[in-house]
Amino acid sequence: MKLSVLLGESRASLAEAGIDDAALDARVIVEHFSGTSRTDAIGRPDMAIDPRAVAATRDAIARRAAGEPVHRILGFREFYGLKLFLSAETLEPRPDTETLVDAVLPWLRRRVAAGGACRLLDLGTGTGAIALALLAEVPQATAVGVDLSADALATAGRNALENGLSERFSAIRSNWFEAVSGRFDAIVSNPPYIESREIATLQREVREFDPARALDGGPDGLDAYRTIAAQAAAHLEPDGLVAVEIGHAQKRDVTHLFERSGFRLVEARSDLAGRDRVLVFGRN
Ligand SMILES: C[S@@+](CC[C@H](N)C(=O)[O-])C[C@H]1O[C@@H](n2cnc3c(N)ncnc32)[C@H](O)[C@@H]1O
């Protein structure tokens, strides 16, 4: 089959299924499963795609038409310039979470410049996105990634290896701090923060394909922050910091939780859409 024909039928299938970005998604899927590039689509539209690649592309297009997100189908996603593999129990890392990396990075660089090393703890590491992005940017840092999911920890370990960061990254299975020992210079976390009753109202791509454990923050969405705020000081160097991603309406509540545990808000950052997204706390 010709590349242009495969692209055309893929676009048509996704448009017919009501997929918003049908043309873009079709292009990404066709390129991946046929091993072609955008340049091929423009310069060599008549190139022949072998039948196995056509079959693999059609399977992938059928999955997308049924609602599965593109990056789940591809099996990986880019985050802060790293290629991160996904698995059943990992959240697909979001561009908004790069805001958390941006917020911590200057502090980390200063810390390393002053002290030569830096230990990070990433609570609810998932694919390892936050920890690995920070390690890639700061070669003197080391990180421990914690998750309750063994599947997520295996994927984070694979991502560390694939990105050449495994010597500085270790993974621990733990319910937040339970199995964590020692003190860290920085504690980072993008915990589950959606109110339980809201899960059913989320977009199908999120509701059906991101793991519930990565989303559900309990009745008011704040369960994880309560635990992290209450226990962070015992695992933090005296002049260390805690940086958390939050839901856009949680700034006040999360700030209060940390203030009650002896922290002060040192920075708040907004995401790409201008909504509150990241809070950074230091100890009083
Ligand atoms: C919103 S996801 C964030 C994943 C990743 N850090 C990111 O930003 O893409 C939250 C993560 O917390 C983990 N998690 C949920 N409850 C946990 C708990 N009690 N202890 C440790 N990790 C937990 C989930 O398995 C999930 O990987």
Automatic annotation (TrEMBL):
It comes from the Bacteria. Residues 7-75 form the Release factor glutamine methyltransferase N-terminal domain. Its EC number is 2.1.1.297. Substrate binds at N190, P191, P192, Y193. GO terms for biological process: methylation. S-adenosyl-L-methionine binds at G124, T125, G126, T127, G128, D147, W176, N190. GO terms for molecular function: peptide chain release factor N(5)-glutamine methyltransferase activity. The keyword Protease does not apply. Residues 119-198 form the Methyltransferase small domain. It catalyses: L-glutaminyl-[peptide chain release factor] + S-adenosyl-L-methionine = N(5)-methyl-L-glutaminyl-[peptide chain release factor] + S-adenosyl-L-homocysteine + H(+). Keywords: Methyltransferase, S-adenosyl-L-methionine, Transferase. Pfam families: MTS, PrmC_N. Belongs to the protein N5-glutamine methyltransferase family. PrmC subfamily. Methylates the class 1 translation termination release factors RF1/PrfA and RF2/PrfB on the glutamine residue of the universally conserved GGQ motif. NCBIfam families: hemK_fam, RF_mod_PrmC. This is Release factor glutamine methyltransferase. It comes from Mesorhizobium marinum.
